[in-house]
């Protein structure tokens, strides 16, 4: 009462698992010579040390930045206002904004002129009725 499965059709290794990826990496390390492995370990240590140093430098720069802002009296609310103002200036400098603004301005002027002429007509009709 066993079910026949053709070879390779239902193999569990067709989709690599996390553990299998790790096993493949270990297998790769075994193919490296001792000298290559030592060289890579040295490089790994060097890169880790550089990352640590950069993290410390970044933390010191951020602390210095905060101190400068504190001395200048710049707080989060002021920074937010400055960012919003800058963003708005960037938007108003775009060609699309300028064209839209000009179009709306022209439409407003035409509408004002139309209302003005309608008002003149109504005023004239009232005068004629009197």
TrEMBL record:
<dbReference type="Pfam" id="PF04201">
    <property type="entry name" value="TPD52"/>
</dbReference>
<keyword id="KW-0175">Coiled coil</keyword>
<protein>
    <submittedName>
        <fullName>TPD52 protein</fullName>
    </submittedName>
</protein>
<dbReference type="InterPro" id="IPR007327">
    <property type="entry name" value="TPD52"/>
</dbReference>
<comment type="similarity">
    <text>Belongs to the TPD52 family.</text>
</comment>
<feature type="coiled-coil region">
    <location>
        <begin position="30"/>
        <end position="71"/>
    </location>
</feature>
<dbReference type="GO" id="GO:0030183">
    <property type="term" value="P:B cell differentiation"/>
</dbReference>
<dbReference type="GO" id="GO:0005737">
    <property type="term" value="C:cytoplasm"/>
</dbReference>
């Amino acid at each position: 009462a066993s079910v026949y499965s053709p070879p390779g059709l239902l193999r569990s290794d067709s989709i690599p698992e996390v553990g299998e990826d790790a096993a493949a990496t270990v297998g790769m390390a075994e193919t490296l010579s001792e000298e290559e492995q030592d060289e890579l370990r040295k490089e790994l240590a060097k890169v880790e040390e550089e990352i640590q140093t950069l993290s410390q430098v970044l933390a010191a720069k951020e602390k210095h930045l905060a101190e400068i802002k504190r001395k200048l009296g710049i707080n989060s609310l002021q920074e937010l206002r400055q960012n919003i103002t800058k963003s708005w200036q960037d938007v108003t400098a775009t060609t699309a904004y300028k064209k839209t603004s000009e179009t709306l301005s022209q439409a407003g002027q035409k509408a004002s002129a139309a209302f003005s002429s309608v008002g003149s007509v109504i005023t004239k009709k009232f005068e004629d009725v009197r």
